[in-house]
Write the structure tokens for this entry.
Amino acid sequence: MNASDRRERGDNEVGDYLWNASGPADPDVQRLEALLNPLALRPGPDAIPPRATLLARPRRVWLALAAMVALAAGLAIFAAPRAGPGWEISSLEGSPIVGSRAVTDQSKLRVGQWLTTDESSRAQLQVATLGSVTVEGGSRLRLIRAEHDEKRLELARGTIHAFIVAPPRLFFVDTPAGVAADLGCAYTLTVADDGASDLKVTVGWVELQGAGRTSIVPAGAVCRMDRLRGPGTPYFPDSPPVFVERLAEIDAGRAAALGGLARAVSPREGLALWHLIPRLEGEARAEAVAALARVVPPPAGVAIEGELDRPALEAWWGVIKERW
């Protein structure tokens, strides 16, 4: 066969004959087949399958491969992390970042994602239907849970302003020093670079937990949390300055500074004194009890001379918070 004959018949047709004998017969190939025919392997139990079987096998192989690819793709889709529930987020100023993308009008903060604001940006996060959280500049915040029975954020650094209308202990904010549990309130929470945090409550109550301690912080009060000691002693900022100074020293582990507690002058100092009593021992504890009794006398049935148990402290607490 010359080149012109090949071009007239087409290379594809010749190829079809070589592959599955469907194209026009090629004389040169036919002569070669005749020469090789005596050497062909005769049918037997181990003989090479006929051409039809050989041709069918590649198709079966391709079908099997296609099925395996489809199965692998399905497993990959099933195993891939699904986008979890998210809360709407909007930019108030600058260019806040969620993950590695700038916040847009349709952005959401999803479970596991971090929201980052630089010093020139601010953002607002909608906490489902419970309220909102304003994120100030220089902050890093992550959504941990967004279930119907628990909403939880993690504030690694920076400042947030939370306004939540919800049942107690439904909204939480984790910090390096402890956890802020919302009791239906509005508050500002700041985490410093060393992990210490400062809380200021404007409406309602917040419960702080950490390092085996619990502090209950009402509206108008503030409280600091330390990474080693957990929540400190909550107090009202309008308390006598020397009283506030002594509280800071006590929270730092210098109990010898208890003498300043005698400067308590109003029932509002009872908030701090009440929290100190179970945290102190011996003479220091007795001094805190005496100081509290001066500003808020204990209710009937509570003897301050003996060891105050939890029920007695709870009864005293009911009187204290009504005197602010």
